[in-house]
Amino acid sequence: MRPVRAIVRRAIEAAGLVTLPAREWQRLREAMTLRNVHRKDVVEIEELYRSFVFPDLPRDPARAEILHNLHGTTVGEGVHIVHYLHRALRVGGDVCEFGCNEGATSRLLAHEILPHAGRRLWLFDSFEGLPAPGEKDRLIDDIAGTGSMAAYQGDMRAHEEQVRDKLALVPFPPDRTRIIKGWIDKTLATADVPGTVAFAYVDFDFYDPIRLALEFLDRTMPAGGFAVVDDYGFFSEGAQLAVDEFVAARAARWRMLMPHPAAGKFCILERIAES
């Protein structure tokens, strides 16, 4: 029986998709082997969090592969998302992601709420990449070496079909999915939004869209809900500023929690009281 990699190579080349020299195929095989080896690291990391930080983190053998394939999100942040999502499921409401990009984190959210038939997944994204930065967005981590905040406009663009492909891997029912395309200042002003939100992942990078998402959650999230906000203290200064201003103005209703620095650059907001 021929090795699977040889069959795959011949099939790809026969289809005219790509022809690589033998040495390049060797490098590709080595990279794939190394990636599969590190897949086991995810299991170890999750178990360490379960042992020392989140003892009630639910077990799911299928989760490791999804955590392993997150893009731009650390495994530590992924574990935090899972933990606080499951805590939030104690209250009523749907699950939202603000800034879903190509859907790697959407897939994680969908996988975790799949058994909860009454929950819908709302995914908000412009699918036009990053917007123009506002006056409160100052570059603190030049992740792509562009030299300016304005140069990131239109970057990190994904397509709606990429998200749907990720959700199909779960598989998450299309009738429980709402993908809302457009800029958040316009989409949140329509009637096509969830009435109650139990959990949200906010990954909008810049001050204005994060502020708008948090103000929406202040109107729709009951006490006991949680939001994880990505890029707190990273990339754009506006992300942290939006969160800090929001919590300071609503200290009676919201509490901010910080992860261990090794987990990544994000924060957790807990809804502690109704308005």
Automatic annotation (TrEMBL):
Gene3D superfamilies xref list: Vaccinia Virus protein VP39
Top-level taxon: Bacteria
InterPro entries membership: SAM-dependent_MTases_sf, TylF_MeTrfase
Coiled coil: none
Protein name, entry field: Methyltransferase
